[in-house]
Amino acid sequence: MDDITPVLIVAIVFAFVSFSVYLKYRTERLRHGVDDLESELHSENQALKNKTMELEKRIQVLESIVTTRDFQLKQEIDSLS
Asked: Distance between CA atoms of 26 and 34, rounded to whole angstroms?
């Protein structure tokens, strides 16, 4: 038992110091509102993803209009005038 005592003492001290540092870290995060900021950024990110998807759909519609034969024929007729 005497051989393991110094190891246990070091482990207990290390665990205490680590836990103390973690509690200080969490306290600072809560004090500065980091958790609220993360959720706010997540919702903004989701809104931007939705907007991007909407714009991609609109571009696909515009591409389909521009590449149709009727549009090309109208452009050719207009260029002859």
From this structure: 10
